[in-house]
Amino acid sequence: MALVERLGYESGLWDTFIRTDSDIIAYQPKMTTGQPASGGPNLGNVDAIFFMGHREIQLSDQQKADLLKFVHDDGKGFVAAHVALTSMNASWPEFGEMLGGVYDDHPWGSIAGTVINEDPAFPATKHLAPTFDLTDEFYQVKNFSREKSRVLLRLDLSKMPANANNHSTNGDFPLAWAKMYGKGRVFYGSFAHSAKTWDDPDIYHMYFEAIRWALGMTEAEVTPRPYVPAKGN
After folding, report:
1. In this predicted model, what pLDDT tens digit does every residue of 111-162 receive, in sequence order?
2. Distance between CA atoms of residues 14 and 215, nearest Å
3. Residues pairing with 113 in the sheet
4. Distance CA 185, CA 179 (A)
5. How far apart are CA 40 and CA 95, in angstroms?
6. pTM exceeding the 0.85 threshold for the entire prediction
7. How far apart, in whole angstroms, are the C-alpha atoms of residue 196 and residue 23?
8. Whole-angstrom Cα distance, residue 92 to residue 123?
9. Which of 28, 36, 126, 173 could tie 155 with a disulfide, CB 3.0–4.6 Å?
10. Which run of H or of E encompasses 104?
């Protein structure tokens, strides 16, 4: 949370409201001037959400509807990281649809792996090498479709040790993707589990550019593409 605030402050591109509750998920009435009422951040006066909620989060039915409307109908941004994939898996399938998938274990725990950069033209991944090594807790995703999301990064399973909890049957293991949800822009990145990974310039620059894209400050092609195995896989 501090990193996202710092990136906005140092760049001058956004102001950050840091919240550890879900009160922001609501639309407050607007005043007669047409501006949102004062009294704190809410869906009526923010342009994007950076989300790292974990497991079940208590949201009312109205809050759920409001959050989907914020992205889908209002065209706002939603950037999610790591544990966000575990959120509300059982209680709210529509959230997984918006995000692109739901959590399906982390087969290896924290381990060194090789990441393949599928889209070096996307703002959040263009600074990354075609392949790079990273030690992290790589989240596996289920209910994911390459027909609905544009995969940006994936784990090179050919270099990972065998693991019975790896559910991929074709070598595809998405780690970061971007998609449109109605009018809104959605980005998910599997990184980062450890605090020190957030200090990695490559990782925090990825999220910096993801937020810029979600805010509509940059443009990118997000048409979904099929999985193409790397040569030799």
Report:
1. 899 999 999 999 999 999 999 999 999 989 999 999 999 999 999 999 998 8
2. 9
3. 134
4. 6
5. 24
6. yes
7. 29
8. 30
9. 173
10. none
Reported as a single tens digit per residue, the pLDDT across 11-38 is 999 999 998 888 888 887 554 455 544 5
Domains present along the chain, CATH in parentheses: 2-214 (3.40.50.880)
User: DSSP states of 142-188 as a string?
Assistant: ES--TTTSEEEEEE-GGGSPP-TT---SSS--EEEEEEEETTEEEEE
* Cα separation values, 214 from 37, 85, 183, Å: 24, 18, 11
Q: Which two tokens stand for residue 141?
A: 């995703």
**Cβ-contact 116, 130 below 8 angstroms:** yes
Where is 71: in which H helix or E strand? Answer: helix 61-72
Counted residue by residue, the chain has a size of 233
